[in-house]
Amino acid sequence: MHHHLPDDSIIRVDVLSFFTKIRYIYTKHANDKTMAQAILFEHLRKYGNPSRMVFYVDGAPALEKKETHRERNEKRNKALKNAQVAIDMLGNRVSQDKPPTKQMFKNVETGLRGGFKWSLQDREDFVDFLQAQQLDAHLCRTEADIDIAAECQPKDIVLSQDSDFFAYDSVATLWRPVGKWDDVKVLEYGREAVLTQIRLSTTKLTALACVSSNDQNKNIPSMGIATNYSIIKDLPDADVPSLVKDYLESPSVICSNQEGIDFTASVLVFTTMTQEIAVPADVSSVPSTSSQSVMPLTASPASFLSYELLCQQYKLVKDQHANAKEQKRQGNSSSKR
After folding, report:
1. Quick one: which of 121, 124, 150, 155 has its CA closest to 137?
2. Stretch (H or E) spanning 185
3. For burial by CB atoms within 10 Å, which of 135, 198, 224, 305 has the most?
4. What is the pLDDT of residue 298?
5. Alpha helices in 4-143 (DSSP H)
6. To which H or E segment does residue 241 belong?
7. What is the pLDDT of residues 251-282, one digit of tens each?
8. Is the Cβ–Cβ distance between 166 and 158 less than 8 Å?
9. Contact 79, 207 (CB under 8 A)
10. Phi-psi group of 199: left, alpha or beta (phi > 0 → left; psi -120 to 50 → alpha; rest → beta)
11. Three-state secondary structure call for residue 332
C-alpha cells in the first residue's frame, strides 16, 4: 500500500469489520487460538505501521441494534442446525464404512461458517495479545464505531469495511479494504470530496445515513437511499434532528411510513456517539459506565456453545474417516505381500 499518511495521524482500525477474515482464520485454527491471533494481527499490520495504529474491538451488544442482533442470531442458529444435519449424515456414512462425498464435507463447512461467532472471550484474548506487544488496543464498551468516531481527529484515518462511518462528522478519511482474499488494497475516501461529489452538507449526509437502512433501524418501506437523497438534498439545511423531522413530514414519507418509524436510535447514535449496553446472560466482563444503564437483550450463549460442540463433532468424524482410510490402506498393503 502506498497512501500518504500525515506525520501526526493515526490509523484507527475497526477490527470486527474484517469478519470474513476473522471467521476463516479462527475456523482454520480452532484448536490453536494463539496461532489465530498471530495470523489476524499479521494481516492487519499490512495496512500500516502498528505503532501508528489503534485497534478497536467490539464489546457488548448495543441495545440500539437489538433487531440486527436478533436477525443475525436467527441466521446463525439456522446455519448451525444445517451443520448438525450435515454432520449426522457424514457420520452415518463413515460409520457404515461407505466413502463420503466431497459435497458432504462442503455441507458441514458451509453450515459451520454460517454459524461462526467471534466470541467475547476470543475478542478479549485478541486485545490482550495486542497489548502484550505494547500496542494500543481496546475492547470497546459497545460498538467499535462509537469509540472510533469519538476519538477520531481531523488527520486520522479510519480503516473499516463499514460504509456508515461518514455518518459521524468526526471522520475525515476512510480506508475501505478491497480486492481478493490476500490483497492489501484500500479505496481512500475523503469526506470533503464525497460531500462535494454528492452535493450535501455534513449534517445532510448524517441525516441521510439516519433515515436509510443501517444497524440501528431499517428504512421506511419504498424509501430507499436514492429516494431519501432526493428528499433530503432539497430540505433547508439544519441540524440532524431537525432534518430528520422535516424528512418525516414530507408528504411522500408520510404516505409510506405506516409503521411510524422515527429513527430515534440512529439519530442518537450518529450525533451523540453513545449506545446503551444490551447484555446477554453470559456477558460479564465488558467495561461499564455508571452513568449509562445496562439493558437485557434476549439472546443465549447456546449459539456459540453449539458452534464449538459441532466443530468438535466434525473433527471426531473426520478423524474417524481418516483412521478408516488408513486401516483400509494398511489392509490393502498387507494383502499384496
Report:
1. 124
2. strand 185-190
3. 135
4. 44
5. 19-28, 33-44, 66-95, 102-115, 120-131
6. helix 240-248
7. 999 999 999 999 999 999 999 998 888 755 44
8. no
9. no
10. left
11. helix
> What is the helix (H) or strand (E) element at residue 335, kind and residue range?
helix 302-335
- The answer to whether residues 57 and 16 touch, using CB atoms and an 8 Å cutoff, is yes
C-alpha cell at 195: 460531500
Cα separation, 240 vs 136, in Å, equals 33
Cα distance from N-terminal residue to C-terminal residue, the chain: 59
Residue listed under C-alpha cell 456517539: 273
Q: Which residues of the chain have pLDDT under 50?
A: 281-304
Q: What CATH number belongs to 11-195?
A: 3.40.50.1010
Amino acid at 183: D
- CA distances to 63, 93, 206 from 320, in Å: 44, 11, 55
- List of residues 6+ apart from 337 with CB closer than 8 A: none
Check residue 302 and give its pLDDT. Answer: 46
Cα-Cα-Cα-Cα dihedral sign, residues 253, 254, 255, 260: positive
User: Which grid coordinates belong to 287?
Assistant: 467495561
